[in-house]
């Protein structure tokens, strides 16, 4: 009998899991061993930093299958995945095109570390495909985008990015953290390399850091060779937690999608809310493109309440359910003001230019019941 691996929940539960079961264990055990015996049947040595323990191998297959990629590499954090992938693709003298709204750590790596290695980058306005050619140079090797940008939830036309990269023979790279493969399968869509901070949705429980590089085998293999020297390999215990978390990815994401949409619609209709950023809202400038590309709009939104920063502070303090803290993608709701967390490294002037007001609130919806979340938003807004 051929095993049926068609449904996405089935894939999440079963892909990459060892058969036959090891000692009959229904869950792949943690191989908490840094090194392994060399046996005649082995093709090489096995060691955690080589990312080839049984826990790594199982995860790699699950990660590759869920994005529709040829192969995958798990890493010690999202930034380990991003840095290894960029260093695999770029060498001295190369040029990178990057979307201007970017995760802060990625922005720092590209603007502070890559220039030291003779790698230059130019930022482009993802919402204006007509302007992209002006960022192109004869040395441009790759183009880098995020599926949904943070904190204003912008969505660029990812099909146009793929077309542009094919036309100009660029390596296409996407950080697919915010959508997750439930809402958008980036490698299947055609991206050469697809990156994740698995610390967010893929693990989903805010208890580990991890990352992933998924995509074309020669590029992922090159990233693995970089990672070997950079040293950012994931510990087997964290591998185990990530693998466990991934099994419920779709169940969680569907609830995140529903909760974020309900919260965005509720907030958009509230007289004390002056702006809501969420691609699932019908009047979002990114709604049309997000609807064409994604099967869901994700669990994160951002908004502004009347009264600016001080009102935002009062609102956040008044919330009972969401914790005031950075990060996102866990089962529990989190809120943060990007001006004090993810974007505090930017100057106030640069933030203003980017449209990130000091009072902006980012809301990572958890999987709590919608009625409870909306009631909490309501009572907190009464205090503003
Ligand atoms: C959190 C995050 C990262 C960095 O991931 P770490 O696991 O914290 O290293 C990269 N990209 C995006 C979009 C993120 O949200």
Could you explain how this protein is built, in words?
With 384 residues, the chain is of the alpha/beta class. The protein has two domains: 8-246, 3-Layer(aba) Sandwich (Aspartate Aminotransferase, domain 2), CATH 3.40.640.10; 250-383, Aspartate Aminotransferase, domain 1. Helices cover 38% and strands 15% of the residues. It has 14 helices and twelve strands. The chain has helices at 8-14, 54-67, 78-89, 104-113, 158-167, 180-183, 186-189, 217-230, 236-246, 249-268, 287-293, 308-318, 348-354, 370-383; strands at 71-75, 95-99, 120-124, 140-146, 171-175, 193-197, 211-215, 273-277, 300-305, 323-324, 334-336, 361-364. The protein has a seven-stranded mixed β-sheet with strand order 1-7-6-5-4-2-3, sandwiched between helices. Strands 8-9-12-11-10 form a five-stranded mixed β-sheet. Helix 4 (104-113) links the parallel strand 2 (95-99) and strand 3. Helix 3 crosses helix 8, helix 10 (249-268) runs parallel beside helix 14 (370-383) and helix 12 crosses helix 14. Residues 77-79, 103, 105, 146, 150, 175, 177-178, 197, 199-200, 209, 211 line the site of pyridoxal-5'-phosphate (PLP).
Show unreliable segments.
Answer: none
**Helicity range of the residues?**
25-40%
Largest sheet, in brief, is: 7 strands, mixed
* CATH class descriptor of the largest domain: Alpha Beta
Summed over residues and divided by their number, the pLDDT gives a mean of 96
Q: CATH architecture of the largest domain, please?
A: 3-Layer(aba) Sandwich
User: Taking Cα atoms only, what radius of gyration do you get, to the nearest Å?
Assistant: 21 Å
What is the fourth-level CATH superfamily of the largest domain? Type I PLP-dependent aspartate aminotransferase-like (Major domain)
The small molecules bound here are: pyridoxal-5'-phosphate
Strand order of the largest sheet: 1-7-6-5-4-2-3
| Number of beta-strand segments | 12
The arrangement of helices and strands along the chain is HHEHEHEEHEHHEEHHHEHEHEEHEH
Give the strand content.
Answer: 5-15%
Number of helices, counting only DSSP H or I runs of 4 residues or more = 14
What is the terminal separation in angstroms? 61 Å
**What structural category do the secondary elements indicate?**
alpha/beta
How many structural domains does the protein architecture include?
2
């Amino acid at each position: 009998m051929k095993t049926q691996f068609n449904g996405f929940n089935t894939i999440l539960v079963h892909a990459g899991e060892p058969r036959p079961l090891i000692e009959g264990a229904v869950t792949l055990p943690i191989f908490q061993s840094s090194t392994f015996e060399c046996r005649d049947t082995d093709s090489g040595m096995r060691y955690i930093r080589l990312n080839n323990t049984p826990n790594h191998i199982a995860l790699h297959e699950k990660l590759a299958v869920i994005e529709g990629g040829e192969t995958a590499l798990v890493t010690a954090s999202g930034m380990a995945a991003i840095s290894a992938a960029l260093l695999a693709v770029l060498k001295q003298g190369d040029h990178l095109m990057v979307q201007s709204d970017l995760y802060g750590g990625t922005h720092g790596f590209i603007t502070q570390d890559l220039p030291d290695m003779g790698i230059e980058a130019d930022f482009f306005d993802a919402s204006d495909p007509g302007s992209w050619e002006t960022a192109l140079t004869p040395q441009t090797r790759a183009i880098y985008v995020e599926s949904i940008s943070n904190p204003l939830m912008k969505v660029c036309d990812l099909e146009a990015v793929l077309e542009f990269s094919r036309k100009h023979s660029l390596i296409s790279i996407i950080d697919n953290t915010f959508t997750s493969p439930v809402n958008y399968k980036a490698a299947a869509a055609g991206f050469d390399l697809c990156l994740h901070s698995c610390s967010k949705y893929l693990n989903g429980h805010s208890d580990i850091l991890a990352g992933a590089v998924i995509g074309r085998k020669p590029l992922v293999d090159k990233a693995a060779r970089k990672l070997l020297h950079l040293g950012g390999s994931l510990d087997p215990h964290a591998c185990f937690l990530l693998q466990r978390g991934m099994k419920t990815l779709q169940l969680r994401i569907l609830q995140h999608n529903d909760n974020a949409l309900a919260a965005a619609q509720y907030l958009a209709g509230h007289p004390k809310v002056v702006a809501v950023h969420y691609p699932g809202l019908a009047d979002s400038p990114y709604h049309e493109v997000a609807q064409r590309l994604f099967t869901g709009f994700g669990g994160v939104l951002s908004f502004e309440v009347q009264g600016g920063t001080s009102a935002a502070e009062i609102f956040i303090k008044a919330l009972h359910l969401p914790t005031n803290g950075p990060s996102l993608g866990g089962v529990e709701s989190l809120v943060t003001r990007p001006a004090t967390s993810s974007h505090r490294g930017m100057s106030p002037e640069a933030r203003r230019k980017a449209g990130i007001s000091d009072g902006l609130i980012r809301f990572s919806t958890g999987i709590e019941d919608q009625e409870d979340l909306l009631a909490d938003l309501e009572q907190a807004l009464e205090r503003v």
